[in-house]
Amino acid sequence: MTAISWQPRLIVAGLLLALTYLWLQSASPELERRNRLQTTLRIIELRDAELMRDILLARAGLLANYDSLTKAGQELLRLSQSLQTELPPANADAEKLMGKLADQLTATVQDSLVQIEYLKSDNALLRNSVMSFDEIGKNLRASAKPADSAKLGNLWRLMFSFMDSPQLELANEIQQELDRLAGLAALSDDYRLLIAHGRLIIDVSPKVDTLLRQIIAQPIVSRVDDLQQALRQYSDSVEQQADVYRLALYLVAVVLLAYLLYQFALLRANTLALRRAHANLQQEINERLQAESWLRESEARLRAITDSAHEAIISADMQGNIVSWNQGAHQMFGFKADRMLGQPFQQLLANPSPDFFDQIREEGEINRLNSPMLDSIAFRQDSSEFPVELSLSSWTRGTERYLTAIIRDISARKHLEQVARQQELQLIQANKMTALGTLVSGVAHEINNPNQLILFNSGLLADIWSDALEILEDRYQASGEFSLGGLPYSEMRNSAAVLIHDINDGAKRIERIVAELKNYARPQSAEASVSFAINEVVERAVRLLKHLIDQKTQHFKTDLAEALPLLHGDPQQVEQVLVNLLINALEALPDPQKSVSVATKLLDDGGHVCVEVRDEGIGIAAEHIQQLCDPFFTTKQANGGTGLGLAISASLLRAQGGRLSFSSAPGQGTCARVIFPLNPVPAMEANHAM
Question: Which residues make Cβ contacts (< 8 Å) with residue 59, sequence separation at least 6?
């Protein structure tokens, strides 16, 4: 475009700028400020009148408190200071005058407020003295002699005449009466207070009246009138200047209109030439539209083929931006085509190579990608991950190269592989438990034989000691102290029976532990569902883990509710679940000073029994709570955790109608809850598989 074609635009732009400038200057922006200042001045006059009214009411004793005085004074000062803010120092003489008048008004208001504070103080003192003088006078007149009562009445009359009209003659008469009272030798405290308050009244009352006259004489109204006069003069001068700008605005608008009419005539002359050029362009457009129609038909056939495929077929350019998105991709990822076209292809993958498209720009790399199958992780619209298999190929259109990916969802295949792996690990775990049961049974048998010998011999030793004690006691009485096994008989007489009893108790404890180990490791039967008491299962699990409990914590406690209903299920499986939860709680403790507790209770709904295993361990992160019962999920992988313990426990509980829940706070501990539904069975008919 030549420089000549810019000339009309520059002229029109210049005229529009001139119009804008003149319009802004003629808008009289000072009008709004003038109205705002006049409103403030009227409010100041109103507040000053309210202040004078409240002052006169306070002096007359008709104002309950001085809050309205304080509020009106603060509002008056705020308004005068706002005028100073609206009228900052300026260069124009009129603005300087208004700023000076605003400063004088603020100073006058401040002086008036200072005098009002003095008036409030003196008036309050005066009112208090008058009230005290009135009260004391009434009391003295009621109890005084007739002569004294007449004097007090005269003083009373003079004082209230003085309060009504504080004249000097009345003040002198009151002072004389007070001096005569003060001259009496024996005066009571009430008389002294009456004299003091009387003198204070005749002293303060003239001061209060003087302050009142000074406040009323403050020239606030005249200051406001002066400022209003200056504001009107200033506004008139501004309005005259705005009229000049309005005239100039009209002239520039006429020039602009004339120039626009001239340009319109030139445009009409160029219209005919443009119409001829348009006819030629229309013919060329029709030819292109025909070519585009053929191209759309070809693309429609290709789209029908790709949309009928179940796989996601996605094409991208060499910058990694998606240019094609079929129906299969919409069903697989959840995104619509209009949302994904133009978006980066790599945002669909969980771990794409940052230089993926840089690597395949070379012709050799493109050819190499025309067949391989790649496994990756992709994201759906809801941010969930799923495994996919990608088949990549490249193609060109003109000089542009593109990459097409055929993506298959292999979630079902991966799930089947995971299920197979889980079943394999559960089979391994079952085989390990079977081997452990066989080993425990053998070890229990080997321990039981010598333990039975200890039990039998300890009982026999107890009988022997009981029989021998009489003979030994006779010898002790006859011969005195003697040794028995290297220890004095007097000491052995009481401790030997205790030692034999401890041996017998220890052997019985070994027998009980061996029986519980055999019970725990015994293979489950198909008819293991019986009625059982949950507290007994908890106690057996605790006894089974007593050594580990003593090793891991110094603060272990149980809180077993009494009279809980019997449960129906497999007590051996429930014991396995509780053992697993206790082991997890103990292993989560950072040191032996932290505690573990087990509690049983009946829930508030009355239809469920709950077992809580609570620890003060390291806790579990919030994002892991929902995954605790997932197979192969573990937070103890570094310590050999398989992630199957809680998954198997949850499965065992579900088989018995129960459920497992967790709550945790990192650094504070975890609470695992085993909840069983009630299936009440009469206690006398219960069959305990214990």
Answer: 119, 123, 208, 209, 212
Compute the mean pLDDT over every residue in the chain, rounded to the nearest whole number.
76
**Would you state the pLDDT for residue 371?**
47
- Arithmetic mean of pLDDT, 570-582: 85
631: alpha, beta or left, given left = phi > 0 and alpha = psi -120 to 50? beta
Measure CA of the first residue to CA of the last residue in the chain; give whole Å. Answer: 103
CA–CA dist 374, 352 (Å, integer): 12
DSSP string, 448-466: HHHHHHHHHHHHHHHHHHH
Q: What is the mean pLDDT of residues 527-554?
A: 84
Secondary structure (3-state) at 398:
coil
> Which residue, chain included where needed, has tokens 């292999």?
410
What are 670's strand-pairing partners?
Answer: 615, 664
CA dist 327 and 307 (Å) reads: 5
Task: Indicate whether 687 pLDDT > 60.
Answer: no
pLDDT in tens, 17-70: 888 877 877 665 566 777 777 788 888 888 888 878 878 787 777 777 777 777
Of residues 545 and 346, more confidence is placed in 545
Average pLDDT over residues 228-239: 75
Task: Enter the pTM of the model.
Answer: 0.34
d(CA 51, CA 43): 12
Query: Cα–Cα distance between 403 and 315 in angstroms, integer?
Result: 6
Strands, E assignment, 479-591:
483-484, 487-488, 530-532, 555-560, 567-569
> Which of 27, 8, 638 lies closest to 262 in space, CA to CA?
8
Query: Which secondary-structure segment (H or E) carries 289?
Result: helix 220-307
Q: How far apart are CA 405 and CA 324, in angstroms?
A: 10
Per-residue pLDDT band for 407 (boundaries 50, 70, 90) equals confident
Q: Say how far apart CA 154 and CA 100 lie, in whole Å.
A: 56
Give the separation between CA 316 and CA 309, rounded to whole angstroms.
18
| Residue 355 near residue 378, CB atoms below 8 Å | no
> CA–CA separation, 556 vs 549, rounded Å?
7
Residue 558's pLDDT is: 92
DSSP-derived pairing of the beta strands 400-409 and 312-317: antiparallel
* 3-state SS, residue 590: coil
320 conformational bin, left if phi > 0, alpha if psi -120 to 50, beta if neither:
left
- Write the single-letter amino acid at 519: N
